[in-house]
Design a protein that fits this description.
Elements lengths: L9 E5 L3 E5 L4 E6 L11 H30 L8 E6 L2 E5 L2 E2 H7 L4 H20 L2 E2 L9 E3 L2 E2 L8 E2 L25 H17 L6 E3 L2 E3 L8 H4 L1
Antiparallel strand pairs: 1-2, 2-3, 3-5, 4-5, 6-8, 7-10, 8-9, 11-12
């Protein structure tokens, strides 16, 4: 794998494990977060945390490469296109506009929102046919191009039946994937419902457990047929 030296790139976005940089108006680079190595006189805990973070973030990008390589063999119009997976500095991806950014400036009509939800479902159905759960279905992971939606960010993705990364030990709290201890198409659909709620209402749903059962908010579109 050859390094492509990139200098003075604009940082567009970032999470706990990776940053997104603009290469040009068509391509972005997703690169792991880098940490300043601890000094020799740092505490053992500081050195341990540095090593743990560095390994975990490297594994996140490595996992995404594996998923994207598999998706290259079975591409789909509603899944973000990888431009290059063969460079150690990160993953080069097709550039799109975050849907969350668009929602900050406009309220899409209902017909467009329904088309978005169909695109989201098409992307997940394609992934689920490979028996892979996305496992991190959030609004930020659905960028858009014109009025089409694509699914991105496969760092947490894993085969059906593996541990749910959002599972929580808190008795009254639900993670993004719901109460299940393992991931499946069901956990992704649970998370997608939260995304749809957020688009419709402008706020994230308050997901809680009451007597070990999920207590879910009611969402209404204003359309009598859909709300019935």
């Amino acid at each position: 794998m050859l390094v492509q030296i990139q200098k003075d790139l604009e940082r567009l976005d970032g999470g706990s494990s990776a940053y997104i940089y603009a290469v040009n108006d068509q391509v972005v680079l997703k690169s792991p977060v880098t940490f300043v190595p601890p000094t020799d006189d740092s505490s053992q805990m500081t050195q341990y945390e540095y090593a743990l973070d560095a390994v975990c973030h490297h594994e996140d990008i490595a996992n995404e490469r594996i998923i994207l390589k598999r998706l290259e063999r079975t591409p789909h119009a509603n899944i973000l296109q990888a431009i290059s997976l063969e460079h150690p500095e990160g993953i080069y991806l097709r550039r799109h506009t975050p849907l969350s950014t668009r929602l900050q400036t406009e309220k899409a009509p209902q017909s467009i929102r329904i088309a978005w939800y169909r695109d989201m479902l098409r992307a997940l159905v394609h992934l689920h046919k490979l028996e892979i759960a996305h496992a991190d279905v959030r609004l930020d992971n659905f960028p858009c191009h014109s009025d089409a939606i694509v699914l991105c960010d496969f760092c947490c993705s894993r085969p059906f039946g593996q541990d749910n990364p959002s599972a929580t030990s808190l008795s009254e709290s639900l993670g993004v994937n719901g109460p299940a201890q393992t991931v499946s198409d069901i956990t992704d659909r649970f998370a997608l419902a939260s995304v749809m709620f957020e688009i419709e209402t402008g706020t994230k749903p308050d997901l809680t457990l009451v007597n070990n059962h999920p207590e879910l908010p009611v969402v209404r579109t204003g359309n009598r047929i859909l709300d019935s």
